[in-house]
Amino acid sequence: MSKPVILTGLRANGELHLGNYLGAILPMIELQKKYAGKYQLNMFVPDLHSFTTPIEHDKLYLQIVQNLKKYVAGGLDLDNEDTYIYRQSYVAAHSELTIILNNFVYYGELQRMTQFKEKSDGAKDTSISAGLYDYPVLMAADILLYGAEWVPVGEDQRQHIELTRDVALRINNKFGEELLTVPAEWKKQVEFAGRGDGVRIRSLRNPEKKMSKSIDDPAGTILLSDTPEAAAKKIMSATTDSQGEIHFDLKAQPGVSNLLQILALLIGEPVDEVTKKWEGKTNYGDLKTAVASEVKVFLTAFQKKLDAIDEAELMRKLESSEFLMRDVALQRLYRIQQAVGLRP
Ligand code: TYM
Question: pTM of the prediction?
Answer without folding.
Answer: 0.96
